[in-house]
Write a structure and sequence with these properties.
about 220 residues, alpha+beta, 5-stranded mixed sheet, 6 helices, about 35% helix, disordered N terminus
Length: about 220
């Protein structure tokens, strides 16, 4: 199957990240303040200030000391391994192999981001479009939230027409905007998804990668 992507096609438009024509992806970064984290931070700061004032004033009356036991070597709760397909595993390993070349931390597989990516690939394939913004106006940030990923930062790469993980990774790594997503140090989580559908009259694979940090990977 030939690659239907034509670099000179009028469908092509400059990438919003790198400005290149033929760029197949987009990076969107939005920072969110987790309310619970903010409250905990405020409580800690207030407690530290109160303790410092009490120490310097000698106000030690009616105080109670609480000892927090160190975590035991065995935990009552076990981590359930996340099941991913061979193709998903290959995509994750390929991304982490590229990050390892720059001594960047490996990303962990995130089911919430995988669902977000898969749903976008399926939607593009079913409705025959190729954009980061879906036909309802939703962006990667909206799709991540819909899957329960309350992110601090989130990004997305998309592609269409490549026939394998190896082929699409070469395309992404040769594009500055997409490579920046894959190599972004702040990211911690990763998910990807594919779907097959018509693109310009040819059956093609729609690829989506989602990256994030700060969210819950349920």
């Amino acid at each position: 199957m030939s690659n239907p992507w034509d670099m000179n096609d009028p469908f092509d438009s400059p990438c919003e990240t790198c400005g290149e024509r033929g760029c197949l992806g987009f990076h969107e970064q939005k920072w969110r303040v987790n309310p619970l984290t903010a409250v905990v931070a405020v409580v800690i700061v207030v407690a530290l200030l109160a303790g410092s004032i009490g120490f310097f004033l000698g106000a030690r009356g009616n105080q109670k000391t609480v000892e927090i036991a160190p975590p035991s070597s065995t935990s009552e709760t076990s981590t359930v391994p996340v099941q991913i397909t061979a193709e998903e595993s290959l995509m994750l390993n390929s991304v982490n192999a590229e990050r390892a070349k720059e001594s960047l931390s490996a990303l962990t597989w995130c089911p919430a981001l995988a669902r977000s990516a898969t749903e976008h690939s399926k939607d593009m394939a079913a409705q025959n479009y190729f954009e980061h913004e879906d036909l309802d106006g939703g962006q990667v940030s909206d799709r991540a939230l819909a899957q329960g990923y309350e992110y601090q930062t989130v990004g997305e790469n998309i592609a269409v027409g490549q026939r394998s993980v190896e082929e699409v990774m070469v395309a992404w790594m040769n594009s500055p905007g997409h490579r920046a997503n894959i190599m972004k140090p702040e990211y911690r989580h990763f998910g990807s998804g594919v779907a097959t559908g018509d693109f310009k009259g040819q059956e093609s694979i729609y690829w989506t990668q989602n990256f994030g940090a700060g969210g819950s990977c349920n």
